[in-house]
């Protein structure tokens, strides 16, 4: 039997790994030799929109929709439950079209009944489909992903991207849970963020380049690859600074999630210091899960939390809000891009 597209994505994501070209090397955190706080005062609590999270790390959307993906979602959900992380499922459109595969998503709520769970659909979704996706999981929020370049590289992908903002506006107004709009690794810029803010979106995941690369993944699936598109998109640090610029310039009370190639504590801390309210991690957590198992994934997340507390102590920030006020130095390509684009 032909391997499902969902499992092909998992295999290729693991095989291709991360490029590490996410821009975080351009960000320097500043040591504070007089932090004036103690480690046991550090709080990792944060909020995105109206949701309160005990950790700023979110397990980002990956999978569901095929038999083999149920096991992955079960294990990710178990790790989320053990560590208190919020978790998104992968696109639920396959279950909306074929209810037989709903269990591969519902397993997440079954394993973690009290956890924070995000549904996920593409921007082609109607309000009715969004309501069904939320209902399927009793989801606390709904992610809507934007993945234009991935679709364009897929021979069977969408070619029509009209009416997206209108559909998002309707869903934001009527779906009844917070809506976050996310990229999948090509990044967002300030103009796109402004358009989303105008539609009432108040949570954006910048999904920048430098981690899981859906151009490379789809090219690995193509008979004739279009490898010249593998560097398309905007690095995570740049996307984050662009979207933060749109938020500040328009004085919007929005929560920004950094994602795209984040795997180490330093990257988590740099993203939060730049102004992200949370960070999404997908490929790097999937790798630990598939190569080392659920227990190792729990250990990895606990270690990230411990190391984040260590860094926050060394910076004198006892909360994520205080981290946002800490100075950083921005160098290299990220600084050059920001200067060219008028991003402060
Ligand atoms: C994804 N991602 C994703 N995103 C989404 O909104 N819906 C989806 O169905 C999927 N599917 C998916 C499958 C696999 C195997 C991976 C690794 C990722 C994208 C993901 O949520 C995230 O935006 C990107 O992967 C960038 O983050 P990382 O992987 O670099 O941390």
**Counted beta strands:** 12
Report the total helices: 15
Order of helices and strands: HEEEEHEHHEHEHHEHEHHEHEHHHEH
Supply the helix-strand structural class: alpha/beta
Mean pLDDT: 97
Termini gap: 52 Å
Q: Report the C-alpha radius of gyration, rounded.
A: 19 Å
List the ions, cofactors and other small molecules found in this model.
ligand FNR
* Uncertain parts: none
Order of strands across the widest beta sheet? 4-5-6-7-8-9-10-11
Q: In percent terms, what proportion of residues is strand?
A: 5-15%
What is the overall silhouette?
A: globular
Largest sheet report: 8 strands, parallel, barrel
In percent, how helical is the residue content?
40-55%
Keywords: Cytoplasm, Flavoprotein, FMN, Isomerase, Isoprene biosynthesis, Magnesium, Metal-binding, NADP
Binding site for FMN: 61-63, 91, 120, 182, 212, 282-283
Binding site for substrate: 5-6, 150
Domain FMN-dependent dehydrogenase: 166-325
Summarize the structure in words:
The chain is an alpha/beta fold and 344 residues long. Helices cover 47% and strands 14% of the residues. It contains 15 helices and 12 strands. The chain has helices at 5-16, 67-83, 93-97, 103-111, 127-137, 148-153, 164-174, 190-198, 214-221, 236-249, 265-274, 283-292, 294-315, 320-325, 332-341; strands at residues 27-29, 46-48, 51-53, 57-59, 86-88, 117-122, 141-146, 179-183, 203-205, 255-259, 278-281, 328-330. The strands form 3 sheets. It has an 8-stranded parallel β-barrel with strand order 4-5-6-7-8-9-10-11, surrounded by 6 helices. The protein has a two-stranded antiparallel ribbon with strand order 1-12. The radius of gyration is 19 Å and the shape is globular. The N and C termini lie far apart (52 Å). 50% of the residues are buried. The mean pLDDT is 97. The chain binds ligand FNR. Ligand FNR binds next to helix 1, strand 7 and helix 12.
């Amino acid at each position: 039997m032909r391997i499902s597209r969902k499992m092909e994505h998992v295999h290729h994501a693991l095989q291709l790994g991360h490029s590490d070209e996410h821009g975080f090397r351009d960000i320097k955190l500043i040591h504070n030799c007089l932090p004036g706080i103690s480690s046991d005062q550090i709080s990792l609590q944060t909020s995105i929109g109206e949701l309160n999270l005990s950790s700023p790390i979110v397990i980002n959307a990956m999978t569901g929709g095929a038999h083999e993906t149920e096991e992955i979602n079960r294990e990710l959900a178990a790790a989320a439950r053990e560590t208190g992380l919020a978790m998104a499922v992968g696109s639920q459109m396959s279950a909306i079209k074929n209810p037989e595969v709903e269990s591969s998503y519902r397993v997440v709520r079954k394993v973690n009944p009290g956890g924070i769970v995000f549904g996920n659909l593409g921007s082609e979704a109607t309000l009715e489909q969004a309501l069904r996706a939320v209902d399927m999981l009793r989801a606390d929020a709904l992610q809507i992903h934007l993945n234009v370049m991935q679709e364009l590289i897929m021979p069977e992908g969408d070619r029509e991207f009209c009416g997206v903002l209108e559909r998002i506006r309707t869903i934001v107004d009527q779906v009844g849970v917070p809506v976050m709009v996310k990229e999948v690794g090509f990044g967002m810029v300030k103009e796109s963020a402004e358009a989303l803010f105008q539609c009432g979106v108040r949570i954006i995941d910048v999904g920048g380049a430098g981690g899981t690369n859906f151009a490379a993944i789809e090219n690995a699936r193509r008979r004739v690859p279009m490898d010249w598109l593998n560097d398309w998109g905007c690095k995570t640090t740049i996307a984050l600074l662009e979207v933060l610029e749109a938020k500040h310039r328009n004085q919007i009370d929005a929560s920004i999630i950094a994602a795209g190639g984040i795997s180490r504590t330093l990257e988590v801390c740099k993203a939060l210091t730049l102004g992200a309210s949370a960070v999404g991690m997908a490929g790097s957590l999937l790798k630990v899960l598939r190569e080392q198992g659920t227990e190792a994934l729990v250990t990895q997340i606990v270690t990230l939390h411990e190391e984040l507390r260590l860094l926050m102590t060394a910076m004198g920030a006892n909360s994520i809000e205080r981290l946002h006020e800490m100075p950083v130095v921005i160098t290299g390509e990220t600084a050059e891009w920001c200067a060219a684009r008028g991003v402060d």
